[in-house]
Structure formats: C-alpha cells, structure tokens
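Deliverable D4.2, example record:
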Amino acid sequence: MIMKPENSSYVTEFILLGLTNEPDLQVLLFLLFLFVYVFTLLGNISILFIVWCSSILHTPMYFFLAQLSIVDISLSTVLSPKMLAGFLTGGRRISFSACIAQTYLFGACASTEFCLLAVMAYDRYVAIGNPLLYTVKMNKYIFAQLAIGSYIGGFLHSLIHAICLYQLSFCGPDVINHFACDHPVLVNLSCTDYFLNDLIRFIFTSILVAGSLSVIAVSYFRIAKAILRIRTTAGRRRAASTCISHFTCVFLFYGSCLIMEVMPNTKDSEEKIKVVAVINAILIPALNPVIYTLRNNEVKEALRKKLFKHNSSH
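Output generated by the structure prediction step:
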C-alpha cells in the first residue's frame, strides 16, 4: 500500500462539475433525471412486489431477478440524489469521506450485478439443459448461497479498491469533472504514485469480469446446444424466450462497462466517460424492469392478475 506523506496538504472535499455548467440546462436535466430515477424506483419495486406476491414466480429465476432489482435500486440511489441536488441547488461539494464512500458503494453494486448476471445465466442453463433435475440442482439452499455469494463477492471486490484509493494522497486540485465520485477520475487527482493502485484494480477487476463473463459464455453455449436438441419449434422458442431478457441486460451492462474500461483515462476523454457512466449507472437500472416485463410472459401474466384482482375488489 502507498502511505500518505505527513507533510502533504490534503484535500478535505471535492467539487463535482456535474454534466454541464449551462444554467439553462440545469432545470431541464433535473426534471429529466428525476423522472428516470422515479421510474427506476417504481419499475424495480414493482418487480419486487410481483415476485413476492405471485406464487407462480417463486422460483430461482425470479428470486435472482428480485435481487437484480434490489441492486439496481441501490446503484441508482447511490448516485442520483446527489446529482439531482447539484442540478437544483448547485451544491456540488462532497467531503473526502463521502466521496470514497460513494465510490465504494457504486463499485459494490456494480460488482454484485456482475456476479448476479453470471448466476442468472447458470440458472437458465440448469433449467434448460437439465429440466428434470432443476429443482434438485437449484433448491432453496443452493440459490440462496449463490445470491449471498454474489453480494459478498461484489462488496469485497469494491472494498479492496476503496482501501487502495484511501491510501492515496490528494493535495489538489479538488475539482472532479464528473457527476459522481468515480475511481479512475479520483486516481487522476492523486498527488502520489498510483501505479500499484491501478495494478491491483486491473488484476481484481479482470478476475471479476473475466470470471463472470466466462460463466455467462459457457452457460449460453450449453443453453444453445440444449435448445438445438429440442425437437419441436415451439419448444425451442419457449426455451429461448426465457433467456432473451437476461441476454439483453448482459449485453447492455457488460457493453457499457467494457467501453468505460477500454476508454483512455485522460482529460480529453472525461466528457465521454460521463456519458457512458450515465448509461451504465442511471439508464440501465431503469431499463432492466422494462426489458424483463415486456419480454417475459410470466411476469406480464402475474402483473395482469394482480391488477385485475385489485380492480375487481373495488
């Protein structure tokens, strides 16, 4: 670890520049992102409510979908309130400790989502590849362990980066060209050598991403083989339809994260990084409930029954 020199003049707070400095756009962006945040909360809470209340959705697949909704709510909540406050009041200062905490929580939620998406792919493989043994291989004990393991892995992964980041010294400047505290941007502001920090981050992030992506790739390869063995067209279509929503979420999340990782961490790329970060951390959590609702007949049917039952009771 890199120790902080005792004679450094430390930064005690940072100034977030946000998405734009144009006053005319502040109110418009506030209303836009407030709508997205409320939509994210309502969409994911609706998924949680439907999964909880509908007995037909009490399966591992929808249990993991509920966990994904919890992570998406958390991911959006870590960033959106502070960003909205900046648009409305102009208060964009954030203490050093709060900045590190925001970086940690954002990383923990994102890392957990990597793990959950991998677990959900494995669940689909077991359901399609071994349907007769599905209830044995994915019993309550096993899928609870997989979910808990995803949270533990995600939060430990982010904790390693947060500890490394906390070891760096920040002597100025204190301006962050972002709407939130983000690890790569913070590292650029450090006045100490951050080679070891970047190396550790690269190693552990590579393990997380490569590991989860390998599980997804192998699972979908075996899913494809299992679907091709199904004799009827209707059966193949039904099996494939249970994977489309998950595959779409994987494509969006991994795609945006990959773009952020391969994008050069320089002053010139900061504006592009902010745009990709909005997609990754603000828009995708809002889109996931829509993707699963529109493409999943069981969720739509459960939602229709709940709405019909509610209306008929009045």
